[in-house]
Amino acid sequence: xxxxxxxxxxxxxxxxxxxxxxxxxxxxxxxxxxxxxxxxxxxxxxxxxxxxxxxxxxxxxxxxxxxxxxxxxxxxxxxxxxxxxxxxxxxxxxxxxxxxxxxxxxxxxxxxxxxxxxxxxxxxxxxxxxxxxxxxxxxxxxxxxxxxxxxxxxxxxxxxxxxxxxxxxxxxxxxxxxxxxxxxxxxxxxxxxxxxxxxxxxxxxxxxxxxxxxxxxxxxxxxxxxxxxxxxxxxxxxxxxxxxxxxxxxxxxxxxxxxxxxxxxxxxxxxxxxxxxxxxx
Length: 281
Fold this sequence. Notes:
Elements: E1 12-17, H1 19-22, H2 32-47, E2 51-56, H3 59-66, H4 76-100, E3 105-110, H5 112-116, H6 118-134, E4 137-142, H7 156-167, E5 171-176, E6 181-182, E7 194-195, E8 197-198, H8 203-207, H9 222-234, E9 238-243, H10 249-254, E10 261-263, H11 273-279
Parallel strand pairs: 1-2, 1-5, 2-4, 3-4, 5-9, 8-10
Antiparallel strand pairs: 6-7, 9-10
Helix pairs in contact: 3-4, 7-9
C-alpha cells in the first residue's frame, strides 16, 4: 500500500487552520466562503465516522477588525481584549455553519498551564474524550484572553500537536500559507526542493526550519511546524503540512492524494508529553 493510502484509515484527526487561511489578505476580515467549505469538509469526515478536532486561529485578527483596528494589536491587553471579542464572534460563526450540517461544535480554550498541571491535563483529556464520545466537534484555540508570556503556547502549530498527543490522534494536518517543507525558503531560493515525505526528524531537517512566515496575521513559521511535527510523530501520529489556500485539500489529503509534506509517525516508547511541553517554555 502506498504510504499516503493509509491516511484513508485514520480515525481521529486534528486539523489546524492558521489565521491567514481564514481571512481575506486585503482586509483581514473573515473569508466566509472558505469557512463554509472548511465546515462542509469537516462535517463530511465526521459523517464517515471519524473523530474530528479543529484547532482554529483567528480570534485576535477577527476581534481587531470588529473594533476597526487595521493592524496587529500591540500591547498584551489590546491583544487580549481583541481575542475576547473575536473568539465569541468566531465561535458564533462556526456554530451557525456547523449546525447547517447537523453538527455540534464545542469550544475548548487552553493555555500551557492546562497541560503542565497534571490535574488540569487529565481534566482536559477527559473533556475531549467525552465531547468526541457525544459526537461533537471540538474547536480549540489558545486562551489568548488570559494568556501571558509565561503560560502561552505562542502559536497554534504547537498547540495542535499537543492536542493530537493528548487525545491519541492518528493524524494531524497543519494548513497555512505554505505548500509544505522545502530544503530552503522557496521565496528566496529558486533551487529549493520540495520534500514529499519525511521518515525521521533529525538535526539537519530542523535546521531547515526558518522562523518566518509570509503572512502578517499568522504567528508560526516553519520552525514551529517542525517542532509540532516532532511532538505529533513522537506521540504516534502522522502529520501533513499543506497549503490552506483551498480547504478542499482536506478530503484530498485524507483520500491519499499527493498533497503537502507527510511526516511519518515514529512513536517513541518513552514519549512523555510534559517533557515536550517544557521544551516549549
